[in-house]
Amino acid sequence: MLTSEIRKIVKAIEKYRLKNVKFTVISNDCWGDDIYSAINRPYNTPFVALLIKPQAYLKLLKNLDHYLASELIFKENQDGVYPVGQLDNEIDIHFIHYETEQEAKEKWERRLLRFRNCINKGATTIVKYASQSDCSIEFLDEFHSLDYPRLLTIDTKSHSCFSNHISYSGLSVKESLDGLQLYKRRYKYFDFVHWIKKNEVKQTLVSKLISLFILRV
Fold first, then answer.
1. Has this prediction a pTM greater than 0.90?
2. From the DSSP assignment, how many helices (H) and strands (E) are in the chain?
């Protein structure tokens, strides 16, 4: 009960702070999915409830328009646990929270249309990568050289040479691979809303208060 009430408070704060702020999220995992429900907006991005491996993700981001213009097809998944889609026979997308290929395709196409509409209306594109293993300096350098309004990387190691990099220290391997868990801990490390609005990755008084008195982390 207490956890539910805490979440309602945080969502109300985020909804107020993001009022009239137009943005869309690109992520390699489930990080950020909750922000849409928090502010009562439909998903305006196809990058929801899925997983994209590092090199494929970087390749996708370098030529995003090209890959998003290609048809999403599905390949055989030997594990058979979830559908695996592919863009232009190169970019594998693991739909880890979808039951069927039909569900994954329908939601991908519907949300992709919203994504394009939002971009055309001037929404800020925020792009995040969370390491599925230790990030190499070379990978981080390539990522932070990409031409997007907002870039953020998350790892378990500190890399002070990148201003928009966060080290989530003290997490288990399982937690560091879980996008939703990383998202829940956001205010312990930086002010998520301030980053969206100002492109500054830092703690603010608001994020410190949320972390200390509301989230208890």
1. no
2. 11, 7
